[in-house]
Protein backbone atom coordinates (compact mmCIF):
# COMPACT_ATOMS: atom_id res chain seq x y z
CA UNK A 1 0.00 0.00 0.00
CA UNK A 2 1.14 3.51 -0.59
CA UNK A 3 -0.27 6.98 -0.39
CA UNK A 4 -0.67 8.94 -3.56
CA UNK A 5 -1.69 12.41 -4.59
CA UNK A 6 -2.28 13.77 -8.07
CA UNK A 7 -1.02 17.16 -9.11
CA UNK A 8 -0.59 19.11 -12.29
CA UNK A 9 2.91 20.40 -12.85
CA UNK A 10 3.92 23.06 -15.29
CA UNK A 11 6.22 22.11 -18.12
CA UNK A 12 8.60 24.06 -20.29
CA UNK A 13 5.96 24.41 -23.00
CA UNK A 14 3.41 25.66 -20.51
CA UNK A 15 0.91 22.91 -21.25
CA UNK A 16 1.30 21.17 -17.93
CA UNK A 17 0.97 17.51 -17.24
CA UNK A 18 -0.27 15.12 -14.62
CA UNK A 19 2.13 13.96 -11.98
CA UNK A 20 1.53 11.94 -8.89
CA UNK A 21 3.44 11.79 -5.67
CA UNK A 22 3.53 8.50 -3.91
CA UNK A 23 5.30 7.12 -0.92
CA UNK A 24 6.66 4.37 -3.14
CA UNK A 25 8.22 4.66 -6.55
CA UNK A 26 5.49 4.75 -9.20
CA UNK A 27 4.45 2.61 -12.12
CA UNK A 28 5.16 -1.03 -12.80
CA UNK A 29 6.14 -1.43 -9.17
CA UNK A 30 2.67 -2.74 -8.41
CA UNK A 31 2.94 -5.26 -11.16
CA UNK A 32 5.75 -7.03 -9.42
CA UNK A 33 3.16 -8.91 -7.45
CA UNK A 34 1.44 -9.94 -10.68
CA UNK A 35 3.96 -11.69 -12.84
CA UNK A 36 2.01 -11.81 -16.06
CA UNK A 37 1.00 -8.22 -16.04
CA UNK A 38 4.21 -6.27 -16.04
CA UNK A 39 5.11 -4.63 -19.30
CA UNK A 40 1.60 -5.06 -20.53
CA UNK A 41 0.28 -2.77 -17.87
CA UNK A 42 2.81 -0.14 -18.64
CA UNK A 43 2.02 -0.66 -22.27
CA UNK A 44 -1.60 -0.12 -21.44
CA UNK A 45 -0.80 3.17 -19.82
CA UNK A 46 1.16 4.10 -22.87
CA UNK A 47 -1.74 3.13 -25.08
CA UNK A 48 -4.05 5.37 -23.12
CA UNK A 49 -1.62 8.19 -23.48
CA UNK A 50 -1.11 7.56 -27.14
CA UNK A 51 -4.78 7.37 -27.76
CA UNK A 52 -5.03 10.94 -26.60
CA UNK A 53 -7.44 10.05 -23.81
CA UNK A 54 -6.26 12.35 -21.11
CA UNK A 55 -9.17 11.47 -18.88
CA UNK A 56 -8.14 7.84 -18.40
CA UNK A 57 -6.42 8.38 -15.06
CA UNK A 58 -9.35 10.29 -13.72
CA UNK A 59 -11.71 7.58 -14.94
CA UNK A 60 -9.62 5.01 -13.22
CA UNK A 61 -9.62 7.06 -10.03
CA UNK A 62 -13.38 6.80 -9.90
CA UNK A 63 -13.09 3.02 -9.50
CA UNK A 64 -11.72 3.84 -6.10
CA UNK A 65 -9.35 1.96 -3.88
CA UNK A 66 -6.01 0.54 -4.59
CA UNK A 67 -6.63 -0.27 -8.22
CA UNK A 68 -7.26 3.36 -9.01
CA UNK A 69 -4.16 4.36 -7.12
CA UNK A 70 -2.21 1.85 -9.16
CA UNK A 71 -3.63 3.11 -12.41
CA UNK A 72 -2.84 6.64 -11.45
CA UNK A 73 0.67 5.74 -10.52
CA UNK A 74 1.10 4.35 -14.01
CA UNK A 75 -0.18 7.63 -15.35
CA UNK A 76 2.60 9.57 -13.70
CA UNK A 77 3.96 10.61 -17.02
CA UNK A 78 0.78 11.21 -18.89
CA UNK A 79 0.91 14.42 -20.78
CA UNK A 80 -1.30 15.84 -23.44
CA UNK A 81 -0.04 14.04 -26.55
CA UNK A 82 0.95 16.37 -29.32
CA UNK A 83 -1.93 16.08 -31.85
CA UNK A 84 0.43 16.33 -34.78
CA UNK A 85 2.63 13.55 -33.45
CA UNK A 86 -0.46 11.42 -32.89
CA UNK A 87 -1.49 12.08 -36.50
CA UNK A 88 2.00 11.29 -37.75
CA UNK A 89 2.03 8.09 -35.75
CA UNK A 90 -1.29 7.04 -37.22
CA UNK A 91 -0.09 7.85 -40.72
CA UNK A 92 3.06 5.81 -40.18
CA UNK A 93 1.06 2.89 -38.84
CA UNK A 94 -1.19 3.04 -41.90
CA UNK A 95 1.87 3.05 -44.12
CA UNK A 96 2.94 -0.25 -42.64
CA UNK A 97 -0.26 -1.79 -43.95
CA UNK A 98 0.39 -0.67 -47.51
CA UNK A 99 2.13 -2.61 -50.21
CA UNK A 100 4.65 0.17 -50.77
CA UNK A 101 8.22 -1.07 -50.96
CA UNK A 102 10.24 -0.61 -47.74
CA UNK A 103 12.27 2.23 -49.24
CA UNK A 104 9.18 4.37 -49.88
CA UNK A 105 7.66 3.48 -46.55
CA UNK A 106 10.79 4.47 -44.65
CA UNK A 107 11.06 7.78 -46.52
CA UNK A 108 7.36 8.50 -46.06
CA UNK A 109 7.69 7.73 -42.36
CA UNK A 110 10.73 10.01 -42.23
CA UNK A 111 8.76 12.87 -43.78
CA UNK A 112 5.92 12.39 -41.28
CA UNK A 113 8.36 12.25 -38.39
CA UNK A 114 10.06 15.41 -39.65
CA UNK A 115 6.79 17.29 -39.99
CA UNK A 116 5.68 16.29 -36.52
CA UNK A 117 9.06 17.31 -35.19
CA UNK A 118 8.98 20.65 -36.93
CA UNK A 119 5.62 21.67 -35.56
CA UNK A 120 5.76 20.17 -32.10
CA UNK A 121 7.53 21.72 -29.18
CA UNK A 122 11.14 20.85 -28.54
CA UNK A 123 11.74 18.76 -25.47
CA UNK A 124 13.89 20.58 -22.96
CA UNK A 125 15.60 18.39 -20.40
CA UNK A 126 14.81 19.32 -16.84
CA UNK A 127 17.55 19.48 -14.21
CA UNK A 128 18.26 16.12 -12.60
CA UNK A 129 19.67 15.30 -9.20
CA UNK A 130 23.29 14.28 -8.96
CA UNK A 131 23.96 10.75 -10.21
CA UNK A 132 27.21 10.26 -8.28
CA UNK A 133 27.87 6.63 -7.47
CA UNK A 134 26.04 5.33 -10.53
CA UNK A 135 27.74 3.55 -13.39
CA UNK A 136 26.52 3.69 -16.99
CA UNK A 137 27.53 1.81 -20.12
CA UNK A 138 26.70 3.57 -23.40
CA UNK A 139 27.17 1.77 -26.69
CA UNK A 140 28.32 4.00 -29.53
CA UNK A 141 29.04 6.67 -26.96
CA UNK A 142 31.94 8.22 -28.82
CA UNK A 143 29.97 10.21 -31.37
CA UNK A 144 26.55 11.52 -32.33
CA UNK A 145 23.80 11.16 -29.78
CA UNK A 146 25.77 8.58 -27.83
CA UNK A 147 28.50 11.14 -27.22
CA UNK A 148 25.98 13.74 -26.03
CA UNK A 149 24.40 11.16 -23.73
CA UNK A 150 27.80 10.15 -22.32
CA UNK A 151 28.74 13.77 -21.73
CA UNK A 152 25.45 14.63 -20.04
CA UNK A 153 25.49 11.61 -17.74
CA UNK A 154 29.11 12.33 -16.90
CA UNK A 155 28.17 15.90 -16.06
CA UNK A 156 25.55 14.52 -13.69
CA UNK A 157 28.31 12.62 -11.92
CA UNK A 158 27.87 9.12 -13.33
CA UNK A 159 30.85 6.89 -14.00
CA UNK A 160 30.55 6.49 -17.77
CA UNK A 161 31.91 3.60 -19.80
CA UNK A 162 31.82 4.18 -23.55
CA UNK A 163 31.52 0.95 -25.51
CA UNK A 164 32.67 1.52 -29.06
CA UNK A 165 34.44 -0.01 -32.00
CA UNK A 166 36.88 2.80 -32.72
CA UNK A 167 39.66 3.08 -30.13
CA UNK A 168 40.98 6.43 -31.37
CA UNK A 169 37.59 8.14 -31.44
CA UNK A 170 36.68 6.57 -28.12
CA UNK A 171 39.80 7.84 -26.35
CA UNK A 172 39.31 11.27 -27.89
CA UNK A 173 35.72 11.34 -26.61
CA UNK A 174 36.92 10.34 -23.14
CA UNK A 175 39.50 13.12 -23.10
CA UNK A 176 37.01 15.77 -24.23
CA UNK A 177 34.30 14.69 -21.82
CA UNK A 178 36.71 14.63 -18.90
CA UNK A 179 37.88 18.14 -19.77
CA UNK A 180 34.38 19.49 -20.22
CA UNK A 181 32.71 17.88 -17.23
CA UNK A 182 35.68 17.68 -14.84
CA UNK A 183 34.54 14.14 -14.14
CA UNK A 184 37.53 11.78 -14.36
CA UNK A 185 35.33 8.71 -14.28
CA UNK A 186 34.92 8.35 -18.02
CA UNK A 187 36.43 5.36 -19.78
CA UNK A 188 36.44 3.67 -23.16
CA UNK A 189 36.34 -0.09 -23.65
CA UNK A 190 36.44 -1.61 -27.09
CA UNK A 191 33.22 -3.36 -28.14
CA UNK A 192 32.33 -4.24 -31.70
CA UNK A 193 28.62 -4.94 -31.67
CA UNK A 194 28.94 -6.77 -34.96
CA UNK A 195 30.92 -9.47 -33.19
CA UNK A 196 29.53 -11.73 -30.46
CA UNK A 197 33.09 -12.50 -29.37
CA UNK A 198 33.90 -8.83 -28.97
CA UNK A 199 30.68 -8.25 -26.97
CA UNK A 200 31.55 -11.11 -24.62
CA UNK A 201 35.11 -9.75 -24.25
CA UNK A 202 33.73 -6.32 -23.47
CA UNK A 203 31.50 -7.72 -20.72
CA UNK A 204 34.44 -9.65 -19.25
CA UNK A 205 36.57 -6.50 -19.23
CA UNK A 206 33.80 -4.54 -17.59
CA UNK A 207 33.25 -7.22 -14.95
CA UNK A 208 36.98 -7.26 -14.19
CA UNK A 209 36.61 -3.71 -12.96
CA UNK A 210 34.31 -4.87 -10.15
CA UNK A 211 31.93 -2.02 -10.73
CA UNK A 212 28.17 -2.12 -10.34
CA UNK A 213 26.02 -1.31 -13.38
CA UNK A 214 23.04 0.99 -12.99
CA UNK A 215 22.36 2.18 -16.53
CA UNK A 216 22.80 0.42 -19.85
CA UNK A 217 22.11 2.52 -22.93
CA UNK A 218 21.77 0.48 -26.11
CA UNK A 219 22.47 3.34 -28.48
CA UNK A 220 24.89 2.24 -31.21
CA UNK A 221 23.54 1.60 -34.65
CA UNK A 222 24.08 1.60 -38.37
CA UNK A 223 21.61 2.57 -41.08
CA UNK A 224 21.28 1.76 -44.76
CA UNK A 225 24.46 -0.28 -44.99
CA UNK A 226 24.70 -2.38 -48.15
CA UNK A 227 23.94 -6.04 -47.76
CA UNK A 228 26.71 -7.58 -45.72
CA UNK A 229 27.11 -9.91 -42.78
CA UNK A 230 28.49 -9.53 -39.30
CA UNK A 231 31.37 -11.69 -38.12
CA UNK A 232 28.81 -14.26 -36.95
CA UNK A 233 26.97 -14.35 -40.24
CA UNK A 234 23.98 -12.14 -39.44
CA UNK A 235 22.60 -9.46 -41.72
CA UNK A 236 24.30 -6.33 -40.39
CA UNK A 237 21.30 -4.21 -39.33
CA UNK A 238 19.71 -7.11 -37.54
CA UNK A 239 22.98 -8.50 -36.18
CA UNK A 240 24.47 -5.24 -34.92
CA UNK A 241 21.52 -3.00 -34.07
CA UNK A 242 19.39 -5.72 -32.55
CA UNK A 243 21.19 -9.00 -31.81
CA UNK A 244 24.32 -7.24 -30.53
CA UNK A 245 22.25 -5.34 -27.98
CA UNK A 246 20.15 -8.40 -27.19
CA UNK A 247 23.30 -10.31 -26.26
CA UNK A 248 24.89 -7.40 -24.40
CA UNK A 249 21.78 -6.82 -22.30
CA UNK A 250 21.43 -10.49 -21.44
CA UNK A 251 25.07 -10.70 -20.41
CA UNK A 252 24.55 -7.68 -18.15
CA UNK A 253 21.13 -8.47 -16.77
CA UNK A 254 22.33 -10.18 -13.59
CA UNK A 255 24.64 -7.25 -12.82
CA UNK A 256 21.80 -4.83 -13.37
CA UNK A 257 19.59 -6.83 -11.01
CA UNK A 258 22.30 -6.77 -8.35
CA UNK A 259 22.93 -3.05 -8.78
CA UNK A 260 19.31 -1.89 -8.76
CA UNK A 261 17.49 -1.18 -5.52
CA UNK A 262 13.78 -1.04 -4.83
CA UNK A 263 13.86 2.75 -4.58
CA UNK A 264 16.46 3.19 -7.29
CA UNK A 265 16.01 0.79 -10.17
CA UNK A 266 18.75 -0.01 -12.62
CA UNK A 267 17.71 0.99 -16.14
CA UNK A 268 18.02 -0.38 -19.65
CA UNK A 269 17.42 2.28 -22.28
CA UNK A 270 17.23 1.15 -25.88
CA UNK A 271 17.32 3.59 -28.78
CA UNK A 272 14.77 2.70 -31.43
CA UNK A 273 13.40 4.90 -34.19
CA UNK A 274 10.17 6.08 -35.80
CA UNK A 275 11.04 3.78 -38.70
CA UNK A 276 9.93 0.90 -36.49
CA UNK A 277 6.35 1.99 -37.28
CA UNK A 278 6.85 0.85 -40.85
CA UNK A 279 9.04 -2.10 -39.98
CA UNK A 280 8.06 -5.66 -40.75
CA UNK A 281 9.31 -8.56 -38.72
CA UNK A 282 9.05 -11.98 -40.27
CA UNK A 283 10.51 -14.63 -38.06
CA UNK A 284 11.32 -16.78 -41.07
CA UNK A 285 13.10 -13.89 -42.80
CA UNK A 286 15.07 -12.22 -40.02
CA UNK A 287 18.25 -12.41 -42.03
CA UNK A 288 16.73 -10.62 -45.04
CA UNK A 289 18.22 -13.34 -47.14
CA UNK A 290 15.74 -13.21 -50.02
CA UNK A 291 17.17 -12.11 -53.35
CA UNK A 292 15.52 -8.71 -52.97
CA UNK A 293 17.38 -6.96 -50.17
CA UNK A 294 16.22 -3.61 -48.87
CA UNK A 295 18.58 -1.83 -46.50
CA UNK A 296 15.66 0.45 -45.56
CA UNK A 297 13.50 -2.54 -44.68
CA UNK A 298 16.36 -4.16 -42.76
CA UNK A 299 16.96 -1.01 -40.68
CA UNK A 300 13.25 -0.63 -39.88
CA UNK A 301 13.06 -4.30 -38.94
CA UNK A 302 15.98 -4.01 -36.53
CA UNK A 303 14.36 -1.02 -34.83
CA UNK A 304 11.03 -2.85 -34.51
CA UNK A 305 12.85 -5.84 -33.02
CA UNK A 306 14.37 -3.54 -30.38
CA UNK A 307 10.92 -2.38 -29.26
CA UNK A 308 9.58 -5.95 -29.07
CA UNK A 309 12.71 -6.90 -27.12
CA UNK A 310 12.26 -4.03 -24.66
CA UNK A 311 8.68 -5.02 -23.84
CA UNK A 312 9.57 -8.68 -23.42
CA UNK A 313 12.54 -7.83 -21.24
CA UNK A 314 10.27 -5.75 -19.02
CA UNK A 315 7.92 -8.71 -18.69
CA UNK A 316 10.75 -10.83 -17.41
CA UNK A 317 12.08 -8.18 -15.06
CA UNK A 318 8.69 -7.55 -13.53
CA UNK A 319 7.88 -11.23 -13.24
CA UNK A 320 11.08 -11.81 -11.31
CA UNK A 321 10.48 -8.67 -9.24
CA UNK A 322 13.83 -7.19 -10.12
CA UNK A 323 14.57 -3.53 -9.51
CA UNK A 324 15.41 -3.02 -13.17
CA UNK A 325 13.35 -1.26 -15.82
CA UNK A 326 13.55 -1.33 -19.61
CA UNK A 327 12.32 1.41 -21.92
CA UNK A 328 12.69 2.18 -25.61
CA UNK A 329 13.26 5.71 -26.83
CA UNK A 330 12.71 7.46 -30.14
CA UNK A 331 15.13 10.37 -30.58
CA UNK A 332 13.36 11.92 -33.59
CA UNK A 333 15.17 12.84 -36.80
CA UNK A 334 18.65 13.95 -35.82
CA UNK A 335 21.58 15.46 -37.70
CA UNK A 336 24.30 12.84 -37.19
CA UNK A 337 26.59 10.65 -39.23
CA UNK A 338 23.99 7.92 -39.22
CA UNK A 339 22.97 9.16 -42.67
CA UNK A 340 26.42 8.62 -44.20
CA UNK A 341 25.15 5.71 -46.30
CA UNK A 342 22.46 7.73 -48.08
CA UNK A 343 22.87 7.89 -51.85
CA UNK A 344 24.28 11.12 -53.27
CA UNK A 345 20.84 12.68 -53.90
CA UNK A 346 19.79 11.93 -50.34
CA UNK A 347 23.02 13.43 -49.05
CA UNK A 348 22.45 16.64 -51.01
CA UNK A 349 18.87 16.94 -49.74
CA UNK A 350 19.97 16.27 -46.18
CA UNK A 351 22.80 18.77 -46.46
CA UNK A 352 20.36 21.46 -47.64
CA UNK A 353 17.63 20.79 -45.11
CA UNK A 354 19.08 19.24 -41.97
CA UNK A 355 20.13 22.52 -40.38
CA UNK A 356 16.49 23.57 -40.29
CA UNK A 357 14.46 20.37 -40.04
CA UNK A 358 16.64 17.99 -38.04
CA UNK A 359 17.29 17.97 -34.34
CA UNK A 360 20.82 18.58 -33.11
CA UNK A 361 22.53 15.55 -31.51
CA UNK A 362 22.04 17.19 -28.09
CA UNK A 363 18.30 17.51 -28.71
CA UNK A 364 18.14 13.98 -30.05
CA UNK A 365 19.90 12.58 -26.99
CA UNK A 366 17.50 14.26 -24.58
CA UNK A 367 14.95 11.45 -24.35
CA UNK A 368 17.61 8.78 -23.73
CA UNK A 369 19.11 10.95 -20.99
CA UNK A 370 15.65 11.48 -19.55
CA UNK A 371 15.03 7.72 -19.55
CA UNK A 372 18.39 7.11 -17.88
CA UNK A 373 18.27 9.72 -15.16
CA UNK A 374 14.83 11.16 -14.59
CA UNK A 375 13.36 10.56 -11.12
CA UNK A 376 9.95 10.69 -12.85
CA UNK A 377 10.78 7.39 -14.48
CA UNK A 378 11.79 5.62 -11.30
CA UNK A 379 10.18 2.18 -11.45
CA UNK A 380 8.62 2.87 -14.85
CA UNK A 381 9.33 0.31 -17.56
CA UNK A 382 7.91 -1.12 -20.74
CA UNK A 383 7.38 2.28 -22.34
CA UNK A 384 8.16 3.82 -25.69
CA UNK A 385 9.27 7.39 -25.10
CA UNK A 386 9.34 10.25 -27.56
CA UNK A 387 10.23 13.81 -26.57
CA UNK A 388 10.20 12.75 -22.92
CA UNK A 389 6.64 11.43 -23.15
CA UNK A 390 5.15 8.01 -23.24
CA UNK A 391 3.69 7.28 -26.58
CA UNK A 392 2.19 4.34 -28.39
CA UNK A 393 4.58 2.29 -30.46
CA UNK A 394 3.53 0.27 -33.51
CA UNK A 395 0.55 -2.03 -32.88
CA UNK A 396 2.60 -5.08 -33.76
CA UNK A 397 5.11 -4.29 -31.01
CA UNK A 398 2.47 -5.13 -28.38
CA UNK A 399 2.00 -8.63 -29.81
CA UNK A 400 3.17 -10.72 -26.86
CA UNK A 401 3.32 -13.89 -28.89
CA UNK A 402 5.67 -12.24 -31.36
CA UNK A 403 7.72 -10.81 -28.48
CA UNK A 404 8.17 -14.27 -27.00
CA UNK A 405 8.98 -15.91 -30.31
CA UNK A 406 11.50 -13.25 -31.25
CA UNK A 407 13.15 -13.66 -27.86
CA UNK A 408 13.39 -17.41 -28.27
CA UNK A 409 14.86 -17.10 -31.77
CA UNK A 410 17.31 -14.46 -30.56
CA UNK A 411 18.47 -16.75 -27.74
CA UNK A 412 19.23 -19.44 -30.27
CA UNK A 413 21.03 -17.02 -32.57
CA UNK A 414 23.20 -15.59 -29.80
CA UNK A 415 23.62 -18.68 -27.66
CA UNK A 416 22.05 -16.97 -24.65
CA UNK A 417 20.69 -19.35 -22.05
CA UNK A 418 20.52 -17.20 -18.96
CA UNK A 419 17.86 -16.97 -16.31
CA UNK A 420 16.15 -14.28 -18.30
CA UNK A 421 15.84 -16.51 -21.28
CA UNK A 422 14.90 -19.82 -19.77
CA UNK A 423 11.65 -18.47 -18.40
CA UNK A 424 10.81 -16.74 -21.63
CA UNK A 425 11.67 -19.62 -23.86
CA UNK A 426 9.05 -21.79 -22.19
N1 LIG B 1 20.04 10.17 -36.36
C1 LIG B 1 18.76 9.91 -36.42
O1 LIG B 1 17.99 10.62 -37.07
C2 LIG B 1 18.20 8.74 -35.66
C3 LIG B 1 16.82 8.58 -35.66
C4 LIG B 1 16.28 7.52 -34.97
C5 LIG B 1 17.11 6.64 -34.30
N2 LIG B 1 18.45 6.82 -34.34
C6 LIG B 1 19.29 5.85 -33.62
O2 LIG B 1 20.11 6.54 -32.69
C7 LIG B 1 21.27 5.76 -32.42
C8 LIG B 1 22.50 6.65 -32.44
O3 LIG B 1 22.71 7.07 -33.78
P1 LIG B 1 23.31 8.49 -34.19
O4 LIG B 1 22.25 9.17 -34.95
O5 LIG B 1 23.92 9.17 -33.03
O6 LIG B 1 24.38 8.02 -35.26
P2 LIG B 1 25.98 8.01 -35.24
O7 LIG B 1 26.51 9.34 -34.94
O8 LIG B 1 26.38 7.36 -36.51
O9 LIG B 1 26.31 7.07 -34.01
C9 LIG B 1 26.20 5.69 -34.11
C10 LIG B 1 27.19 5.10 -33.13
O10 LIG B 1 27.15 3.68 -33.23
C11 LIG B 1 28.49 3.23 -33.32
N3 LIG B 1 28.64 1.96 -34.00
C12 LIG B 1 28.41 1.65 -35.28
N4 LIG B 1 28.77 0.39 -35.53
C13 LIG B 1 29.23 -0.11 -34.38
C14 LIG B 1 29.77 -1.36 -33.99
N5 LIG B 1 29.92 -2.36 -34.87
N6 LIG B 1 30.15 -1.54 -32.72
C15 LIG B 1 30.04 -0.55 -31.81
N7 LIG B 1 29.55 0.66 -32.12
C16 LIG B 1 29.16 0.88 -33.39
C17 LIG B 1 29.17 4.30 -34.14
O11 LIG B 1 30.56 4.19 -34.04
P3 LIG B 1 31.46 4.23 -35.41
O12 LIG B 1 30.87 5.24 -36.31
O13 LIG B 1 32.82 4.53 -34.93
O14 LIG B 1 31.34 2.85 -36.02
C18 LIG B 1 28.62 5.54 -33.46
O15 LIG B 1 29.32 5.82 -32.29
C19 LIG B 1 21.26 4.64 -33.44
O16 LIG B 1 20.80 3.46 -32.84
C20 LIG B 1 20.26 5.09 -34.48
O17 LIG B 1 19.66 4.03 -35.15
C21 LIG B 1 19.02 7.86 -34.99
From TrEMBL:
<dbReference type="GO" id="GO:0005576">
    <property type="term" value="C:extracellular region"/>
</dbReference>
<dbReference type="GO" id="GO:0016491">
    <property type="term" value="F:oxidoreductase activity"/>
</dbReference>
<protein>
    <recommendedName>
        <fullName>Polyprenol dehydrogenase</fullName>
        <ecNumber>1.1.1.441</ecNumber>
    </recommendedName>
</protein>
<comment type="pathway">
    <text>Protein modification; protein glycosylation.</text>
</comment>
<dbReference type="GO" id="GO:0005811">
    <property type="term" value="C:lipid droplet"/>
</dbReference>
<keyword id="KW-0551">Lipid droplet</keyword>
<dbReference type="InterPro" id="IPR002347">
    <property type="entry name" value="SDR_fam"/>
</dbReference>
<dbReference type="InterPro" id="IPR036291">
    <property type="entry name" value="NAD(P)-bd_dom_sf"/>
</dbReference>
<dbReference type="Pfam" id="PF00106">
    <property type="entry name" value="adh_short"/>
</dbReference>
<keyword id="KW-0520">NAD</keyword>
<keyword id="KW-0521">NADP</keyword>
<comment type="similarity">
    <text>Belongs to the short-chain dehydrogenases/reductases (SDR) family.</text>
</comment>
<comment type="function">
    <text>Oxidoreductase that plays a key role in early steps of protein N-linked glycosylation by mediating two non-consecutive steps in dolichol biosynthesis. Acts both as a NAD(+)-dependent dehydrogenase and as a NADPH-dependent reductase during the conversion of polyprenol into dolichol. First catalyzes the NAD(+)-dependent dehydrogenation of polyprenol into polyprenal; polyprenal is then reduced into dolichal by SRD5A3. It then catalyzes the NADPH-dependent reduction of dolichal into dolichol. May also acts as a positive regulator of starvation-induced autophagy.</text>
</comment>
<keyword id="KW-0560">Oxidoreductase</keyword>
<dbReference type="InterPro" id="IPR020904">
    <property type="entry name" value="Sc_DH/Rdtase_CS"/>
</dbReference>
<keyword id="KW-0964">Secreted</keyword>
